[in-house]
Amino acid sequence: MQSLLKVSRAIDAFSTFVGRWISWLIVVAVIISAVNAVVRKVFDVSSNSFLELQWVLFSVVFLLCAPWTLLKGEHIRIDIINHLFPLRVRGWIDMIGHVFFLVPFCVILIWTSIPFFLVSYHQNEQSFSAGGLPQWPAKGLIMIGLALLLIQAISEIIKRAAIMQGLLPDPNAEALSAHEMAELEAVRLAQAITTDKP
Do 55 and 36 form a contact (C-beta atoms < 8 A)? Predict the structure, then answer.
């Protein structure tokens, strides 16, 4: 298990590195959007390539930062229900979700996105809009992003197995205590408001 945890730590470090750097493309997309809007309003000039570049940059961030999001536990969960379960049950929910849903989802989409990309690449597929960007690089992002997400899913499975064996602390315990603290703070604020009323 210790050797698997070393692999998991390497995957986590890579996902963090990629996520932190790729997330800066949001700033680039905002700058391009602002410049494009100013140029369009002031000079009455616009370009479809700038509009499409914004979409591509957003896609890059969405797809390539997904592993980092999973690593940080910032993906969407049904926390209203999830936090009611004991930690052991929550751990099994995570493990089953990763093994039986996330991993097959990534494998199927990678498998189907490869021919999707190759056809587009061989045709040198271009945008339908005049002056737009080539389409095949954006389609290539799908398989790259999902491959990275699959690798991170494997890391999460390794860590979850280590947590179940007591080799790592359970991050769900921290999330649970944070949720309980938020509930206590909400109760305290409600009491403070009611006592302050004249």
Answer: no
